[in-house]
User: Which sequence fits this backbone?
């Protein structure tokens, strides 16, 4: 019951924000110079044809009217068509978002797997090399352009060593994608039990996940370390120590208490990466959602961009709800 | 003779080194001993070094504090030089600590039962059901009403007094021989404080515990202790059996403290001295004199020879 | 200055950060003297040369010298980053001070404050990168658009930092005293609130410059920033992108290294400013001397 109220409050707060996002992005994108009708028909089109298209697309109406029409359509699940792919945006995004989500999720999992142990060790061993290392790693990881790191990995592991798969999308050309269940090849090939495809999927995932994972491990290490530092000095951990609890128990308790902060930074990174992974997507020809939006922006193709913004806002919303549920599971104080 | 002593401090000194050598000596040459089954009250104002002593005994000093001299004997073993492993096996099982602000001393994410159970299982190798029984028993012993349901309660669901009882339970659960109570009731209402003190008194008598009772409240100490030590600027200025202390207080700080706590005008007059005078007399150049002089049997006072 | 020297003495890496930024500025100023080749002239005879004494960092597919281009890029990238950061800091601080000062000060003013904060929430919940690209697309590709986009994306941080500061400083006695003695709101903000809350903002500035360099390069890499022949690290990496698969690593690698070192240096400086701006931590850090 407390949980439902909690989620309800959250939604109440987020829905206006969602509306704001859609509104702002709509008006911003309407300001992009370039007439979509003209772009669609080419410079040689007759004035009548342009006018006709404009009225079909609703471009002759006032901005506010256009926005209301747009909202109505979005609410009924219609995100328009992209004139570049000539397909409904919804269809395109349903294909592309799983690719992005798969990449981002696995990268963050990898970042957590290396970030949390390093952060904890750095906090426990104050005077060790690992402490110094983690301090500078945080700064360095935040400084390297992820797209560049991706290129370097391609050069080393593909061009020179030949270990990695070609940076040309999510699968080798000869291999058919698994039957769509979730849209993530990683999951779908597992479901299908198709090990050959699965191996290929993993091979293609390795480098981009490594790139994004290593970069994003920086903030995770930093957050883990600083909250663990604070907690190890906290009253209740000190008290647990004076009760003679073993070091393992102490670290476990401190870590459990630092989970909410770690969770927060992960959710921030996650929502950032949904759009922010776009450059790495470009480098590995990933065909993700960010890439789709980017080409939309650069070609005055408004529907894909809007569709992307709406979708990523909704995904962030879902993400924050999941994070809230996890907070709820971790911290009994929220349950009242 | 020595076998009767539970814990003794010999010239314990605790330093907090500062920058450019501007450190503070929080505890200076403190010596006292506590016999089995006895309660020593340690009274002092904040900053006098009370908590540093408690933390030194459990070797849990806050950075950058460290023990720079002296010995702490617990049943013939020196805690200062003990290995971490040995220390761990003593803490919580032989020596336990009761702390103030119980709500921030309990892990907010774990149930009471779990936290008590963790301590039991660390020290006594009990099975799961035995552990649970031990926890329920101790919760009952500290008079927590409805202890079966409190077992699965979280710290934030408890009142301050209840949480304090949990802390006491935690300190008793492994049947320790020596308990340090560090300002244990300072955060509580007076009525709750009274109940807690009554409970502690009862348990101490039942289990024949040795206690170091640290407090700011000399009145509280008066009701509770067998011996009383007054701590001032990191040093003991007067140490005496409780009756002797109230009958014949000598050190001006003792007198000043007593007069401040006295409710009757008569007593206030008896105890009061001019603070200007005593501070000049007893702290030449801001220093407390180095020698403790035995003025009567077991009654030590710090003053110039 | 002396404090800085003492601080860096024990932390060579931080010292390196300061040194590197200083070094970059010198290189940028004397680029014309230092660079052996013109940065924008294609030389078909020399295309895709590996690094050698003739071309220190090699050449790209049109035969332009990468070393020279890397150095000329400093001018552009640092100017974009400095300007973008400066604009966002100034505008953001001003808005933040107003918002913080007016919060809970009366009807209309409070509405203004909470509206601004909600608007910031919306702006900050955008996918940052796509947002920046959209801004560039709106303003039209060009230097000023990039600066505007960077300034806009960074602004919310300064508003928030300043607001928190203003909220607490507003409560101080001396501010109340000044208010009661009839000082106007604007003067109060300029004279008391802004000067007394610069600490956290200063320490954020340096980190932010580095971050802006990264964003500018990323925009160019995505094709929404500086266009190809102009020397810019991000677009140079993009140009070298195709070559890396076939084994010519140098066109992308060198600009990336310079870019990374630059951002890293600013991050190091930021980390040290954070410590040095805080009197307590400053004393602790140079305690030995």
Assistant:
């Amino acid at each position: 019951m407390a949980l439902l109220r909690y989620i309800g409050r959250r939604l109440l707060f987020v829905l206006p924000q969602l509306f704001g996002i859609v509104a702002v992005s709509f008006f911003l994108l309407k300001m992009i110079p370039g007439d979509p009708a003209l772009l669609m028909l080419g410079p040689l089109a007759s004035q009548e044809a342009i006018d006709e298209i404009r009225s079909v697309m609703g471009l002759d109406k006032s901005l506010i009217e256009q926005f209301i029409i747009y909202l109505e359509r979005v609410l009924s699940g219609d995100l328009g068509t992209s004139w570049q792919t000539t397909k409904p945006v919804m269809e395109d995004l349903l294909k592309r978002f799983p690719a992005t989500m798969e990449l981002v999720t696995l990268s963050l999992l990898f970042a957590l797997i290396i970030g949390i142990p390093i952060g904890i060790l750095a906090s426990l061993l104050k005077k060790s090399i690992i402490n110094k290392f983690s301090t500078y790693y945080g700064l360095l990881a935040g400084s390297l352009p992820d797209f560049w790191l991706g290129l370097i990995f391609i050069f080393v592991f593909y061009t020179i060593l030949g270990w990695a798969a070609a940076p040309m999308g999510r699968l080798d050309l000869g291999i058919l994608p698994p039957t769509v269940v979730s849209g993530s090849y990683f999951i779908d090939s597992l479901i299908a039990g198709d090990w050959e495809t699965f191996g290929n999927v993993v091979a293609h995932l390795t480098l981009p996940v490594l790139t994004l994972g290593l970069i994003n491990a920086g903030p995770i290490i930093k957050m883990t370390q600083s909250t663990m530092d604070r907690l190890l000095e906290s009253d209740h951990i000190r008290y647990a120590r004076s009760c003679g609890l073993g070091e393992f128990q102490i670290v476990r308790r401190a870590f459990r208490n630092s989970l909410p902060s770690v969770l927060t930074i992960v959710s921030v990174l996650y929502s950032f990466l949904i759009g922010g992974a776009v450059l790495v997507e470009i480098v590995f020809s990933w065909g993700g959602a960010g890439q789709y939006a980017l080409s939309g922006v650069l070609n005055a193709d408004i529907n894909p961009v809007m569709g992307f913004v709406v979708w990523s806002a909704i995904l962030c919303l879902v993400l924050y709800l999941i994070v809230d549920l996890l907070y709820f599971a971790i911290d009994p104080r929220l349950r009242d | 003779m020595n076998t009767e002593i539970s814990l003794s401090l010999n010239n314990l000194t605790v330093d907090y080194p500062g920058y450019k050598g501007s450190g503070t000596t929080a505890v200076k040459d403190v010596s006292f001993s506590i016999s089995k089954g006895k309660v020593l009250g340690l009274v002092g104002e904040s900053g006098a070094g009370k908590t540093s002593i408690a933390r030194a005994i459990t070797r849990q000093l806050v950075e950058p504090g460290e023990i720079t001299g002296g010995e702490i004997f617990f049943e013939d073993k020196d805690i200062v030089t003990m290995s971490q492993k040995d220390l761990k096996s003593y803490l919580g099982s032989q020596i336990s600590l009761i702390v103030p602000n119980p709500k921030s001393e309990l892990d907010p994410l774990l149930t009471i039962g779990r936290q008590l159970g963790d301590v039991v299982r660390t020290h006594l190798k009990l099975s799961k059901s035995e552990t649970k029984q031990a926890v329920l028993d101790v919760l009952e012993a500290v008079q927590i009403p409805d202890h079966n349901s409190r077992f699965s309660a979280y710290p934030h669901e408890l009142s301050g007094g209840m949480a304090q009882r949990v802390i006491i339970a935690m300190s008793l659960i492994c049947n320790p021989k020596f308990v340090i109570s560090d300002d244990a009731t300072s955060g509580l209402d007076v009525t709750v404080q009274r109940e807690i003190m009554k409970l502690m008194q009862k348990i101490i008598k039942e289990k024949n515990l040795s206690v170091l009772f640290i407090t700011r409240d000399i009145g509280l100490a008066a009701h509770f202790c067998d011996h009383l030590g007054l701590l001032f600027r990191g040093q003991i200025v007067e140490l005496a059996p409780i009756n002797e202390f109230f009958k014949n207080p000598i050190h001006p700080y003792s007198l000043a403290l007593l007069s401040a706590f006295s409710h009757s005008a008569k007593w206030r007059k008896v105890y009061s001295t001019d603070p200007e005078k005593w501070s000049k007399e007893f702290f030449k150049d801001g220093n407390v004199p180095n020698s403790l002089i035995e003025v009567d049997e077991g009654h030590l006072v710090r003053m110039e020879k | 200055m002396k404090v800085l020297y003492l601080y860096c003495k024990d932390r060579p890496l931080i010292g390196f950060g300061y040194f590197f930024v200083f070094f970059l500025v010198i290189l940028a100023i004397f680029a014309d003297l230092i660079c052996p080749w013109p940065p924008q002239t294609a030389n078909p005879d020399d295309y895709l040369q590996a690094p050698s004494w003739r071309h220190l960092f090699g050449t790209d597919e049109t035969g332009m010298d990468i070393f020279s281009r890397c150095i000329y890029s400093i001018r552009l990238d640092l100017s974009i980053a400095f300007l973008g950061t400066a604009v966002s800091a100034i505008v953001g601080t001003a808005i933040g001070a107003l918002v913080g000062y007016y919060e809970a000060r009366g009807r209309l003013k409070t509405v203004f404050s909470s509206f601004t904060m909600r608007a910031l929430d919306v702006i900050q919940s955008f996918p940052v990168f796509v947002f920046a690209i959209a801004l560039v697309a709106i303003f039209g590709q060009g230097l000023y658009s990039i600066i505007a986009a960077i300034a806009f994306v960074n602004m919310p941080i300064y508003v928030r930092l300043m607001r928190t500061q203003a909220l607490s400083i507003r409560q101080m006695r001396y501010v109340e005293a000044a208010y009661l003695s009839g000082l106007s709101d604007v003067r109060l903000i300029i004279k008391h609130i802004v000067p007394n809350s610069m600490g956290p903002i200063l320490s954020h500035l340096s980190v932010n410059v580095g971050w802006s360099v990264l964003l500018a390069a990323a925009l160019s890499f995505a094709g929404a920033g500086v266009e190809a022949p102009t020397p810019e690290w991000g677009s140079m990496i993009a140009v070298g992108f195709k070559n890396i698969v076939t084994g010519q690593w140098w066109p992308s690698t060198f600009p990336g290294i310079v870019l990374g070192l630059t951002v890293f240096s600013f991050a190091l400086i930021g980390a040290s400013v954070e410590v040095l701006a805080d009197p307590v931590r400053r004393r602790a850090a140079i305690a030995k001397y």
